[in-house]
Amino acid sequence: MAKGHRSQIKRARNAVKDTRPSAKLSYARMSVQKACYVLDVIRGKDVQTALGILTYNPRYASSVIKKLLESAIANAENNNGMNVENLYVAECYANKAPTMKRIKPRAQGRAYRIEKRTSHISIVLDER
């Protein structure tokens, strides 16, 4: 059981805010596994190197993640006043989102289920 009034507990929980610049894409039309292949490559790299990797990566997820990374860089520059040369990808991860269920007709009147998976992708930057 938590100690204190509900408003005190909420105030204490909300006081611990992460001030690092970030960007989040919800309901991206790709599976978590496919997004993680690309995210694992750029994790820990500085933003210029990460943008170069994403530009020439042939996977579909790289174009989506590149756009998200550019958004996080713009957030750092405009909202936090950070220098772009010092930024690096501190955290990047993909979480599971709702799956769209579809049906594919098959032989002899059967129906197979097709699962169109979606994901929530997050990128957090930090200064060196």
From TrEMBL:
Residues 1-14 have a biased composition (Basic residues). Keywords: Ribonucleoprotein, Ribosomal protein, RNA-binding, rRNA-binding. InterPro entries: Ribosomal_uL22, Ribosomal_uL22_bac/chlpt-type, Ribosomal_uL22_bac/org-type, Ribosomal_uL22_CS, Ribosomal_uL22_sf. This protein binds specifically to 23S rRNA; its binding is stimulated by other ribosomal proteins, e.g., L4, L17, and L20. It is important during the early stages of 50S assembly. It makes multiple contacts with different domains of the 23S rRNA in the assembled 50S subunit and ribosome. This protein binds specifically to 23S rRNA; its binding is stimulated by other ribosomal proteins, e.g. L4, L17, and L20. It is important during the early stages of 50S assembly. It makes multiple contacts with different domains of the 23S rRNA in the assembled 50S subunit and ribosome. Part of the 50S ribosomal subunit. Belongs to the universal ribosomal protein uL22 family. This is Large ribosomal subunit protein uL22. It comes from Lactonifactor longoviformis DSM 17459. The lineage of its organism: Bacteria, Bacillati, Bacillota, Clostridia, Eubacteriales. The gene is rplV.
